[in-house]
Write a structure and sequence with these properties.
- The chain is globular.
- With about 325 residues, it is α/β, with parallel strands linked by helices.
- The strands form two sheets. It has a ten-stranded mixed beta sheet, sandwiched between helices. Strands 3-2-6-7 form a four-stranded mixed beta sheet.
- Strand 9, helix 5 and strand 10 form a beta-alpha-beta unit.
- The two termini are about 20 Å apart.
């Protein structure tokens, strides 16, 4: 089983326009869709569509449309009682694939709800192969919460992945190696925040075919105890760095339609490949293939295996600078 935690879930409403968005103008939508969302929920949706047993842990009440939407999609969930309904996030999608997102902050969680989520993760992790902690934390939750959860999961046999940003990401890194996960999935900006590098420089270098600045930055995290760093670089591809190897993959040619859920799909692809016993190159290829497939789909649609073309993703092995003595896993 794979377990995902989404502390700040949402109902994601996507409005598709037939022309470029203009500030202050009146636009007519060509289509609108509403789907259950939040980063961990997206990961759970992709894993479920791929036929993998998955449970999404999240706060929710019985009357919340989010829970009904998950049930309609066949996504198994474990809801911890809370007050209020899931927030609504709005995405405006333009014909060239540009997406503008307006995310609500979410309802503050009461201490008993946070305690319930913590207890649920600790209990269910005993039976999981992977635990995925994804997304922002809602108001009222300490930024160091993810770090505490990682430390708790590390006491089990499950592997743990983290995909977050801003204060929760920085708080997680402040606790390394105690809070170092088996996998962390930063984008270029987030990797820069963690390592003191310029994220724009990292992404620009990768776009020019030079992923080594990203590899060197990711290696800093591996040396601090992280098992693997999956650094996503937008249209330039992604880099995977572990204690024993580094790889760079570029995406196949696609027509971008929406970036919503692309990073979450990449993370799901990595986990799927790991469960299938793939090596580093194989895990990276599946991650990039899933992320690219998501970007080619409209709105908040997420990829199924039939949308994914792993063979179209070129991967090359890179020289690994330095050495790591702290990494908990070697592949």
């Amino acid at each position: 089983m794979i377990l995902t935690l989404t502390a700040n879930p949402s109902m994601d409403r996507t409005v598709t326009l037939d022309a470029a968005l203009q500030r202050g103008a009146v636009h007519r939508a060509t289509t609108t869709t509403t789907d259950p969302g939040g980063k961990g929920v997206n990961v759970a949706r992709v894993l479920t569509a791929a036929g993998r047993p998955c449970t999404a842990v999240l706060p929710g009440t019985g009357s919340d449309p989010l829970l009904g939407a998950l049930g309609a999609l066949g996504v198994r969930y474990h809801a911890v009682p809370t007050t209020g309904l899931a927030r609504t996030n709005l995405t405006v999608s333009e014909p060239d694939g540009t997406t503008t997102k307006i995310n609500e902050p979410g309802t503050a969680l009461a201490p008993e709800t946070v305690a319930g989520l913590t207890a649920s993760v600790r209990e269910l992790a005993q039976r999981a192969q992977w635990v995925v902690l994804s997304g922002s934390v809602p108001p009222g939750v300490d930024a160091g919460w993810y770090g505490d959860l990682v430390a708790a999961v590390r006491e089990t046999s499950a592997r743990v992945a983290v995909d977050t940003s801003d204060a929760p990401l920085l708080a997680l890194a402040a606790g390394f190696p105690r809070t170092a996960p088996d996998l962390i999935k930063p984008n270029a900006e987030e990797l820069g925040q963690l390592t003191g590098r310029d994220g724009e420089v990292l992404e620009h270098a990768a776009a020019q075919g030079d992923p080594m600045p990203t590899v060197e930055a990711a290696r800093i995290l591996v040396d601090r105890g992280v098992g693997a760093v999956l650094a996503t670089l937008g249209a330039s591809g992604a880099v995977l760095v572990t204690a024993t190897g580094a790889w760079f993959a570029t995406p196949p040619p696609i027509t971008p339609r929406s970036t919503v859920g692309a990073g979450d799909s990449s993370l799901a692809g990595y986990v799927l490949a790991d469960l299938d016993g793939a090596d580093g190159a194989g895990r990276l290829a599946r991650a990039v293939a899933y992320g690219s497939a998501a970007a080619a789909l409209p709105g908040t649609r997420l990829p199924t295996p039939t949308d994914v073309h792993v063979d179209a993703v070129p991967v090359r092995s890179l020289s690994l600078p330095g050495s790591s003595a702290l990494a908990r896993h070697t592949s």
